[in-house]
Design brief:
mainly alpha, 11 helices, transmembrane, ABC_2_transport, antibiotic resistance, transport
């Protein structure tokens, strides 16, 4: 009987098959994990040790403790590039078309890709947190608050996954990936990752405060008990609700778009 439950179970089973396939590819190409970690570690070292002495945190506090939650969030956003490249490469090589010719759920490929990249992001975030602990960063409000902060970071990554999947399915080929990657950088750097919006011109600070990445980073700093929390604006005072709402909105938009785009490929 073709019930909603049976269709859901079919999608989950097929999605897990694709997840295992993508995880196997990652295991066979460990350099991808190394490359994804090199950038945030280099940025932390550069800003934390080379430039950190000239950086001030509004309200006082250690700049490296201010920086680390921002780098966690920035890494979750920049993970979009890996998703985009993987989806675009599969589509250009005909792998996606072969999947579509099989008797499998229409959403399994995008669900499987999402699950694999999210698991990869858990590993990346754990390694970055370990590096942060070695550098002197720490959380100060208990393990439960820290777990919630890490959950918010992965929640942002989950939303950005669907943006990456949709863009990867929309691009005509891997050669256009670079153009899409360029758009990620303004989104990542126009945030409170490296500096507080209070130190910026008024109009720029307002843009930064309403960036979804800034909301997640500010909420993570608050939950970790790290410096740089607070502000006079509504966005600064409600970082936690915004950190929940922004990824939910992005997921609500790009998840159905991704599934629909996948089903319409080659039509």
């Amino acid at each position: 009987m073709n019930t909603v439950g049976s269709r859901l179970g079919w999608a989950v089973r097929d999605g897990w098959t694709i997840t295992r396939r993508d995880l196997t590819h990652l295991a066979n190409q460990p350099w991808q994990l190394v490359v994804s970690l090199l950038f945030p570690i280099m940025m932390v070292l550069m800003f934390g040790y080379l430039l950190g002495g000239a950086m001030t945190v509004p309200g006082g506090g250690d700049y490296r403790e201010f920086l680390l939650p921002g780098m966690f969030g920035l890494t979750m956003v920049f993970g979009l590039e890996r998703t985009l490249i993987a989806i675009s490469t599969d589509a250009s090589k005909g792998v996606t078309d072969r999947f579509r010719s099989m008797p499998m759920s229409g959403s399994a490929v995008v669900l499987g890709r999402c699950a694999a990249d999210l698991l990869d992001s858990v590993v990346v975030l754990a390694i970055l947190a370990g590096c942060g602990l070695l550098m002197g960063w720490d959380w100060h409000r208990g393990l439960d608050q820290a777990a919630l902060a890490f959950g918010l970071l992965l929640w942002l990554r989950f939303a950005m996954l669907w943006v990456g999947i949709y863009l990867g399915l929309m691009l005509p080929g891997p050669e256009m990936v670079m153009a899409a990657q360029i758009l990620v950088w303004p989104f990542g750097f126009l945030s409170s990752t490296f500096a507080s919006p209070d130190t910026m011109p008024g109009w720029l600070g307002a843009v930064v405060e309403w960036n979804p990445l800034s909301a997640t980073v500010s909420a993570a700093r608050e939950l970790f008990g790290n410096p740089g929390v607070g502000g006079d604006s509504w966005a600064a005072a409600n970082a936690l609700p915004l950190a929940l709402a922004w990824p939910l909105l992005l997921t609500a938009i790009f998840f159905p778009l991704s599934v629909r785009r996948y089903r319409r490929l080659s039509r």
